[in-house]
Amino acid sequence: MGKAVLIPKDEQEKMKELFKINQFNLMASDLIALNRSLPDVRLDGCKTKVYPEELPNTSVVIVFHNEAWSTLLRTVASVINRSPPRLLREIILVDDASEREFLKASLENYVKTLEVPVRILRMEQRSGLIRARLRGAAASKGQVITFLDAHCECTLGWLEPLLARIKEDRKTVVCPIIDVISDDTFEYMAGSDMTYGGFNWKLNFRWYPVPQREMDRRKGDRTLPVRTPTMAGGLFSIDRNYFEEIGTYDAGMDIWGGENLEMSFRVWQCGGSLEIVTCSHVGHVFRKATPYTFPGGTGHVINKNNRRLAEVWMDDFKDFFYIISPGVVKVDYGDVSVRKALRESLKCKPFSWYLENIYPDSQIPRRYYSLGEIRNVETNQCLDNMGRKENEKVGFFNCHGMGGNQVFSYTADKEIRTDDLCLDVSRLNGPVLMLKCHHMRGNQLWEYDAEVPGGSGTARGTGVSLAESRDCLGWKSPPRSQSPPCARCPPCH
Ligand code: LR7
Ligand code: MN
User: Fold this and answer.
1) Beta strands of 358-486 (E only): which ranges?
2) Sorting pLDDT into bands at 50, 70 and 90, what band is 459?
3) How far is the CA of 2 from the centre of ligand 2 (A)?
4) Residue 142: exposure state from Cβ atoms within 10 A (0-12, 13-18, ≥19)
5) 248-302 per-position pLDDT tens digit
6) Do β-strands 416-418 and 408-411 pair in parallel, antiparallel, or remain unpaired?
7) Fewer CB within 10 Å: C terminus or N terminus of the chain?
8) How far is it, in rounded angstroms, from Cα 158 to Cα 88?
9) Ligand 1 pocket, 176 CB below 6 A?
10) Ligand 1 contacts CB of residue 63 (under 6 A)
């Protein structure tokens, strides 16, 4: 029933050693049956829903690199045991050049014993999850393609609501609620239907609370799908013809990362939609560290992938990513002309449309006055978030001109924001704190009184100056020549 596995004291040394292999508790996973039972974590309203008898069938594509035996085969077993046979066309395992012996002949022999056709494809060389998925998708025959990570567990009734939604609208890409399988104890914990996907200025995927507008649109019915700005990436179903129409994946992306935001932006901007189907639950082992190597270096690979998606889909809003990530503009991202041509031929909408219509609560403001450092011209000190977290005070530090913690945006809502935090003066005479942006102005409203656009001026919060400096803030526009101050400033409203 998805309960935690507890390892006895005298085995914990061994357990810690084994943990390092996959960055999860392998000993715990190996102790659990491949077909373990799981609790039914669905909302009550989901348990009684009736889906059409006629639904499209699906191929399930699982890519893996050096995955553990027990997690991989528990994923496969849960797909087989909890999918109506008529809806499960096949399972395709794509081995991304794993080195582990047991993933070769033993795996092939094992899957032959299963009652659902399981095909194993092997990449000739390490290609990354994006190209491995492309290979699996190309070989698949189902009407729908369902992608899963190699350490998942599908729960009762996971598949029908996904397929039913695609049957209703073939241009909807659907994700289950992703439940948490503890990397430590393998306990199964229900995920929330009250979070959806977003991203920050660094282009990291993040979960954020489902906003009120989306609750209102569904008239409070939590069993209805949530329209989500982005997806986590690993677990989703898509109509196979639509997958091709919309441009599959960017095959120029390496190893890991970026493809989830790329597909999210693409689907929304090019006329599709992306949803979390809250009646479908699939568990995933969330890890704190990555267990495998990134040929080329982790940072380099992810920055390259992110540059590809920023260049093709984000228009001028890519500046948020570039200014906050020093050095990223030097990363070679290869040729994106094919992807740009795709965007043209599909007549996709601009990123500003996406921000306005799909993600108005985005961390990237659709309208803003400036983006860059906030400098006290007398002292040459810059406002600096010091890498601090929510509810801590904003700092000052020598201006370094390197972006990162010294990047702020003055938005059309008159917030001063650094990524997903806003300067906030709710404590009278207290320090200026960084809090979640609430879009309600109030203590997060800043007036800027420069007379020359882009010139020096002072920023004042409601009656409180920035306490650490005992001055108002001197203000200077970003030093980058290619984005002249206020070139994009929206008209004041
Ligand atoms: O080189 C590789 N080749 C592979 O085949 C690297 C990875 N892989 C396989 C790997 O074995 C696994 O099955 O690809 C799959 C995903 O890799 P993970 O499990 O290391 O990724 P993750 O769970 O940390 O990362 C999330 O973001 C990735 C960005 O590229 C992918 O989209 C993952 O599928 C995605 N996982 C999820 O969405 C599950 C929920 C996590 C969250 C939030
Ligand atoms: Mn994963």
Assistant:
1) 368-372, 375-376, 381-384, 392-393, 395-398, 408-411, 416-418, 421-424, 433-436, 447-448, 459-460
2) low
3) 18
4) buried
5) 999 999 999 999 999 999 999 999 999 999 999 999 999 999 999 999 889 999 9
6) antiparallel
7) C
8) 12
9) no
10) yes
Rounded Cα–Cα distance for residues 37 and 153 (Å): 10
Contacts for 226 with CB less than 8 Å, ≥ 6 apart: 193, 196, 210, 214, 218, 275, 276, 278
Residues 6+ apart with CB under 8 A from 372: 323, 407, 408, 476, 477, 478, 479, 480
Q: Give the pLDDT score at 457.
A: 61
Q: Quote the CA–CA distance of 395 and 385 in Å, as a whole number.
A: 6
* CB neighbours of residue 315 within 10 Å: 15
Classify residue 286 as left (phi > 0), alpha (psi -120 to 50) or beta: beta
Tokens of 21: 């292999």
| Candidate from 75, 149, 262, 281 with most ligand 1 atoms within 8 A of CB, to mutate | 149
Q: What is the pLDDT of residues 21-59, one digit of tens each?
A: 999 999 999 999 999 999 999 999 999 999 999 999 999
**Separation CA 141–CA 61 (nearest Å):** 11
DSSP string, 169-228: -TTEEEEEEEEEEPTTT--EEPPPTTEEEEE-TT--EEEEEPPHHHHHHTTT-TTSPEE-
Distance between alpha carbon 54 and the CA centroid of its chain, in Å?
32
Closest atom of ligand 1 to 292 CA is 6
Contact 453, 410 (CB under 8 A): no
Residue 15 tokens, joined: 């357990």
Looking at residue 379, what is its pLDDT? 87
Q: Are strands 188-189 and 408-411 parallel, antiparallel or unpaired?
A: unpaired
To 5 degrees, how large is the angle CA 275–CA 156–CA 183? 80
Q: Which domains does the chain have, with CATH numbers?
A: 9-285 (3.90.550.10), 368-468 (2.80.10.50)
Is the C-alpha dihedral spanning 152, 154, 158, 160 positive or negative?
A: positive
Sign of CA dihedral 401, 406, 411, 416: negative
Please, which residues have CB less than 5 A from ligand 2, an ion?
149
Average pLDDT of the chain is: 91
The total of other beta-carbon atoms located within 10 Å of residue 223's CB is 18
Nearest CA to ligand 1 atom 25: 234
Which of 98, 120, 129, 253 is the best mutation target for the ligand 1 pocket, counting ligand atoms within 8 Å of the beta carbon and taking the most? 129
Q: Is the entire prediction scored with pTM above 0.90?
A: yes
Name 417's bridge partners: 409, 422
The residue assigned the tokens 């040729």 is: 335
